[in-house]
Design a protein that fits this description.
Shape: elongated
CATH superfamily of the largest domain: Vaccinia Virus protein VP39
Strand content: 15-25%
Low-confidence stretches: 1-24, 220-227
Number of domains: 2
Distance between the termini: 54 Å
Mean pLDDT: 87
Strand order of the largest sheet: 3-2-1-4-5-7-6-8-9
CATH architecture of the largest domain: 3-Layer(aba) Sandwich
Largest sheet: 9 strands, mixed
Helix content: 25-40%
Number of helices: 18
CATH class of the largest domain: Alpha Beta
CATH topology of the largest domain: Rossmann fold
Length: 490
Amino acid sequence: MFLERNHIAFQNPTEPDKKKSQLGQFMTSAKVARFMASQFQQTPLDECRLLDPGFGAGSLSIAFLERWISGKIDFQSIELTACEIDPQFHENIPAILQPFSSRPNFKSKIQIGDFIERAVNWLLISPKTKFTHAIINPPYKKVNSNSKHRHLLRAVGIETVNLYSAFVALSLALLTPGGQLVAIIPRSFCNGPYFRPFRKYILQKSAIHHIHLFSARDKTFKADSVLQENVIIHLERDVKQGDVTITTSTDDSFTDLKTVIHPFSRIVSSDDTESFFHIPTSDKPNTIDRYQFARYSLEEIGITVSTGPVIDFRLKEHLQDMPDPDSVPLIYPVHLNGHGPEWPKPGIKKPNAIRHNKETEKWLYPNGFYCAVRRFSSKEEKRRITARVIDPKAFNEAKLLGFENHLNIFHNQKRDIPEMLARGLSVFLNSTAVDEYFRCFNGHTQVNATDLRLMKYPSRSDLINLGKWSKSKDELTQAIIDEKLEELIS
């Protein structure tokens, strides 16, 4: 019962929102803390040296210690090292640990200050400082490229862009062989170029035992209004990789917990140079995985995808609400909300045109057929990927087009692509199978050009045939698209 009391007393300290944002701190609920503590597996160790690099209100450490006291994990003794940078928590730490302090087989060390500085000093100056277990709810905040933290991390061979990945990487480095780490972190590390070094660091140093996914983006840290998908990951240092347990639940009540065990190859593909982490939520392989229908890179197809080059605030003086003879169409996602382009669109808050001159010409593409994918979707939308065909006829025979930065554009060296290829790409990308596949490694609402570039696609000829089929249809519903894709790949 102590965990509940501790959580109620300390989960929402009187801290201004501004400070919470500065530190990137969000408190762990009692239910999440218990679930995280339950992930640790019994080992033959007699002594546990537990690291909590962001102690805060103490929920995680308390959950671990209560599990120990209840006999669910067995150690003769535990030594806790609790690190905390925020002074408002410091005076509470002795009271939080008081129920355990009288036990002769429990010791605690309170480390006041910056965990990154302390961890780097341990690794460089006191390499014998090691831990057998680490339980982590790290802060979420970017690490600037020239910051003190970035230089400290580089000193120990860690390249990363956020405090949460820095905390996990440092804690992993401080573990003994066979040491276990459980952390709750944003799912954003699973894909994208910025977290590539962090993913590779995890794979080099540890085996992944368990990943838990919270499917509701607004429930895990609902008290702090944090809107993102979060995962709990369980790693073990320097052991052989085996199968991976994937569990899912809607929120931190865990009432709809589902468990599936997958071979590691379904989580990280051996031929993926980016080491994307896929988190399948079904025991059945995705349609694309199952039939390997999509196994070609964009380079093999002869096209590529790029973010729209027109950044409107940088070219503000050249934008126009409506077109005139000296301008060309400027396409935003709002122009593609239907089945095809709707341009110009009076009454919207975005400009419909951009002047064509020497300053803007390098940002413009020739008018023609393209496939466009919105970079962002709202949390209410069912789909992550929404693709539309750019049809040149929709733009009054304009010679050039401007694509705004919130679109991803499939093109051929900044030129248009064949109509049927554009149509086939749009059909394929709008299929449920692709959307489900994409969600396995993308945990946020942003669809990056890099993600689309690293995906696999049907062959060029298959895409063209798919495009011809789509043009022959009066209507393309989701059911019709999915039925056609299943027919092609089965």
